Amino acid sequence: MYNESGQLNFVNNTISQSTDTITLRGVIKNPMVFPSAPKTNTLRELTDGEFVTVLLEGVQPVEVVAIPRAAVLTDQQGDYVFLLGPDNKAEQRRIHLGQSTATIAAVMNGLSVGDKVIVEGLQRVRPGAAVTPGPVSALIEQSMKAAPSDGHVQNEPAGTPSAKPPSTTP
């Protein structure tokens, strides 16, 4: 263990999609190895280009509701989702998003644990339309399993609308 403590002074506001990492910068003391040696000796405990593992303490995780990013729709008034309401009717709900990835959206407010979010067939959903709940597709299930499980609460996606697409005849 390194005996010095430092301070975080920069947190990037983007997440690398290829590594799921965030760039941070901190300032930490780097004392000389032999403090009683002449000042010409600049041997330090840490060296340029050295890789270290840093334990960041004092930060409390924020618990949020996580849903598949595909369920989030946006219009001029902001972000919203469709929920499976009473009597299997679709209802629109405005939400406020937090930090999200390409596959998972963190919902800061507007949803509660247990709300059933409609994920598939959104192009056919209208408020008040009848919806036939179905099993979660493998793709949606896989993206939700890939979500970070450290304090994030996951909602179960609901089914698809009961309206069928228009049929075409040759």
Structural description of this entry:
With 170 residues, this protein is mainly beta. It is built from 1 helix and 13 strands. A hairpin with a 2-residue loop joins β4 and β5. The longest helix is centred in the C-terminal third of the chain and has 8 residues. The protein is rod-shaped.
Which CATH class of the largest domain?
A: Mainly Beta
CATH architecture of the largest domain: Beta Barrel
Radius of gyration: 24 Å
Q: What number of domains? A: 2
The chain-level mean pLDDT equals 78
Helix content: under 10%
Termini, distance in Å?
73 Å
CATH topology of the largest domain: conserved putative lor/sdh protein from methanococcus maripaludis s2 fold
Strand order of the largest sheet: 7-8-3-11
Main pleated sheet: 4 strands, mixed
Strands, total number: 13
Tally of DSSP helical segments: 1
Low-confidence stretches: 148-170
Shape: rod-shaped
Determine the strand fraction and express it as a percent band.
Answer: 25-35%
Structural class: mainly beta
Succession of helices and strands: EEEEEEEEEEHEEE
Quick structural gist:
The chain is built from one helix and 13 strands; from the N terminus they run E-E-E-E-E-E-E-E-E-E-H-E-E-E. It is mainly beta and 170 residues long. A hairpin with a 5-residue loop joins strand 5 (78-84) and strand 6.
